[in-house]
Specification:
Blueprint lengths: L15 H7 L7 E6 L2 E6 L3 H4 L18
Antiparallel strand pairs: 1-2
Length: about 70
């Protein structure tokens, strides 16, 4: 686990290993979400990159009658 320091301008540097693991590039947007007692950074992906990620999902599940 890496530790970072908050600068006087409240900036932090994302460690190289984390950037490489998540594929974060310079200029890429990251969503900042406060959750319980922590901060989560979620890389924002283009909608086109998400296309087809549900391909092959099983849609034969039983649905409630008010959801049809």
């Amino acid at each position: 686990m890496d530790t970072v320091t908050v600068s006087p301008k409240f900036q932090v540097v994302i460690p190289r290993a984390v950037r490489e693991l998540l594929g974060i590039r310079p200029g890429q947007k990251v969503r900042v979400i406060p959750f319980e007692n922590r901060i989560e950074l979620i890389p924002v992906e283009a909608v086109q990159k998400s296309r087809g990620f549900l391909k092959g999902i099983d849609t034969s599940v039983e649905r409630e009658t008010d959801r049809l």
